[in-house]
Write a structure and sequence with these properties.
This protein is α/β, with parallel strands linked by helices. It has three domains: about 90 residues, Rossmann fold, CATH 3.40.50; about 120 residues, 3-Layer(aba) Sandwich (Cobalt-precorrin-4 Transmethylase, domain 1), CATH 3.40.1010.10; about 130 residues, 2-Layer Sandwich (Methyltransferase, Cobalt-precorrin-4 Transmethylase, Domain 2), CATH 3.30.950.10. The protein is about 25% helix and about 20% strand. The longest helix has 15 residues. The radius of gyration is 24 Å and the shape is globular. The protein binds S-adenosylmethionine. S-adenosylmethionine binds next to helix 10 and strand 17. The site of S-adenosylmethionine has 25 residues, from helix 10 and strand 17.
Length: about 425
């Protein structure tokens, strides 16, 4: 609602939102994409919406007011985002913000707001934002080209657009840090008309998408639970048949407990071209981020990645836990947090010593990364005491753990014996 009718370029500015109240009205996919960026800025986020996508609902550190917007909700806000699917509500939010002189982005009609969201990315302590007079595709393309140059790519955003792929790309998004997707994955994401994202897909990658991109939360695709995979396959097929380029974005690698091959089979059967872009799997990246290499010369010559989704002894289990208990190398167990005790028991019953070092890493490579260390005998209780939460958590059971310390400490190889933690960094035990 500019009082001045002459068009003017918005004034680009960086807001210090640390601890400041930000009110977000609506809780759909647009909001899902903005929340990680607002959280990274340290904002005190209040979401007002009667319903939310599963990703918004499970976002930590936000306050969700589970009801419709009402006048007065913006009181004390420094910044407001109007992002409901009802234009009347969005207009009312903008009007209230205007009266109290709070800048407000209107997601459905950007020019009616008093602030606009640039196409952004963050890398290596740098933040870049691009505005292009409301031309979102242009701002996204320029942003991608700048990012490509800064991250050592070719800067070929325009070139890439000219060879826009068809069909569906199954893209591994990496373990969580948006910089840990591959260059190819990121460039295909920048060309997508539709993104079908899993809960474990790095949320900040979604925040970078142009506003016109349709984001489908795979957890919210309708149909019953048992039919969920079939329904996701169908969405991929339907959107591709509409001539849209679809990116199916997954956490880690699409083929590591990611059902990627099931989707590829369904798409191939439907005659849809498929591109598969491998990703950095959390099964290697998460221990690495916690200072635990999965192999080390002279220490461990094997590592095994196992699903802990089904408990040892369950009739559906396909894992030979006794054999894993006899192995000497590193065992990486994904989807294990709710079954840590029975998994550790099974490994010990198979022959692993009770004092084998074990670690649980939560939300590796994200701002919320935590590592809980213990032994095979203690790890379930240690993780419970630390209130480690699924789904972004994995268990590592190295036979001998090699732990990397800060620059001023040495790398050390440790045996299974427990020693007090060294105060220098808490990563290795005192010699
Ligand atoms: C369904 S599996 C998908 C694995 C994924 N395709 C991959 O390659 O990393 C999900 C499990 O991966 C693990 N996981 C994924 N991201 C993680 C992270 N950032 N930190 C720790 N564990 C993670 C957790 O054990 C989670 O339960």
């Amino acid at each position: 609602m500019n009082s001045n009718d002459a068009p003017a370029d918005p004034y680009l500015v960086g807001l210090d939102l640390r601890g400041r109240r930000v009110v977000v009205v609506g809780a759909g996919t647009v909001v899902q994409r903005r929340l990680p960026v607002l959280l990274a800025a340290g904002a005190d986020i209040h979401v007002v919406a009667p319903e939310a996508t599963p990703a918004v609902e499970s976002t930590p550190c936000i306050v969700w007011h589970r009801r419709a917007y009402a006048s007065g909700d913006l009181l004390g806000a420094w910044y407001v985002l109007a992002a409901t699917n009802d234009p009347t509500v969005n207009a009312a939010v903008v009007a209230e913000a205007e009266v109290q002189r709070t800048f407000c982005v209107r997601a459905d009609l950007a020019r009616e707001g008093t602030a606009v969201t640039p196409a952004t990315f963050a890398t290596d302590g740098l933040q870049v934002g691009v505005l292009a007079s409301g031309d979102h595709r242009r701002s996204a393309a320029v942003r991608d080209a700048v990012r490509s140059v800064l991250t050592g790519g070719t800067g070929g955003g325009a070139e890439a657009a000219a060879r826009k792929p068809e069909g569906v790309a199954l893209v591994g998004g990496g373990p969580g840090d948006p910089d840990l997707i591959t260059v190819r994955g990121r460039s295909l994401l920048g060309l997508a008309d539709v993104v079908v994202a899993d809960r474990l897909a790095p949320p900040r990658l979604l925040a970078e998408l142009a506003p016109g991109v349709e984001v489908i939360d795979a957890a919210k695709v309708p149909y019953g639970r048992a039919m969920a995979q079939q329904a996701i396959n169908q969405v991929l097929i339907d959107r591709a048949r509409e001539g849209k380029f679809v990116v199916r974005l997954k956490g880690g690698d699409p083929y590591v407990f990611g059902r990627g091959f099931e989707e590829l089979e369904a798409l191939a059967e439907a005659g849809i071209p498929v591109t598969v872009v491998p990703g950095i799997t959390s099964s290697i990246a998460a221990p690495s981020a916690a200072g635990i290499p999965v192999t080390h010369r002279g220490v461990t010559h094997e590592f095994v990645v196992v699903s802990g989704h089904v408990a040892p002894g369950h009739p559906d289990s396909l894992v030979d836990w006794d054999a894993l208990g006899r192995l000497r190398g590193t065992v990486v167990v994904l989807m294990a947090v709710e079954r840590l005790g029975v998994i550790a028991d099974a490994l010990m019953a198979g022959g692993r010593s009770a004092d084998t070092p074990a670690a649980v890493v939560e939300s590796a490579t994200t701002g919320g990364q935590r590592t809980v260390r213990g032994t095979l005998a203690s790890i379930a209780a240690d993780a419970a005491a630390a209130e480690v939460k699924p789904p972004r958590s994995s268990l590592w059971v190295p036979w001998l753990a090699l732990r990397a310390c800060r620059r001023d400490c040495d790398f050390r190889v440790e045996s299974g014996r427990r020693r007090p933690l060294d105060p220098c960094c808490g990563l290795h035990e005192r010699a």
